[in-house]
Structures are given as C-alpha cells and as structure tokens.
Design brief:
Elements: H1 15-23, H2 28-36, H3 42-48, H4 54-66, E1 70-75, E2 81-86, H5 88-106, H6 108-114
Antiparallel strand pairs: 1-2
Helix pairs in contact: 2-5
Length: 116
C-alpha cells in the first residue's frame, strides 16, 4: 500500500507567498519593466534581454498572461503582429517593482559584496 506524501512545510496563504509565486522566474520583472516602458513586441523584448533565450521569455510571458499581469493583442494582418500590454493588475504592480529597484540602487554596494 503506497503512502501519500504529506508536505512538511505548509504553503503560506498570504500575499507574500502569492507575489513570490507570480514573480518567480528570472526575467519576469525585467519583462514587466520593458512592457511598461513601451517595448511591447516579442522581437523587441527579446532583443532588449539578450541574455535570455526566446523560449524562456515566451514561457514567462505565458505565465504572466495566465496570472493576468499582461495581455496579448494579436493584430489580424497579412503578417500577424503581436503586442503585449500591462493589465490594470500588472500596472498596479509597477510601483512595487520600482520601489524594489530603488532599494537595490540605494544598497548596491552592500549587495555587491554579499551576492556571489
């Protein structure tokens, strides 16, 4: 008879846990910043983050679509064109991201010495 796995550390049902889950991914914050700054087409986004593969960026864009942080607009043209935009929910996250970025800038020297 197989025993059922019981999670030893329960997931926290709080806002911190949910924001951690939706922003989990190396490029999600960078993607949100670029879309907010007007870089909306997939090719432009990919060129603006050359360290990331297109496949990874597409996967993370898909997750953010699922979480309703961004929306995708497909133009019905001869050559289909796609653009991403922040939703109201994604827009409401930008002050938090900007605040975290400012904290990083304010503490960059300390962080550089502690991050390997």
């Amino acid at each position: 008879m197989a025993t059922q796995y019981i999670r030893k550390i329960p997931l926290l049902d709080c806002g911190h846990e949910y924001i951690r889950k939706i922003l989990h991914g190396r490029w999600k914050i960078a993607l949100l910043i670029r879309i907010n700054d007007g870089i909306t087409r997939p090719g432009e986004i990919s060129r603006s983050i050359p360290q990331a593969t297109r496949r990874v960026l597409d996967a993370q864009l898909g997750e953010m679509l699922m979480h309703n942080l961004i929306k995708k607009k497909v133009y019905n043209e001869t050559v289909p064109r796609v653009e991403y935009q922040l939703t109201d929910l994604g827009q409401s996250l930008m002050p938090v991201i900007n605040s975290m970025g400012q904290w990083g800038e304010d503490n960059i020297e300390t962080l550089k010495s502690s991050v390997k």
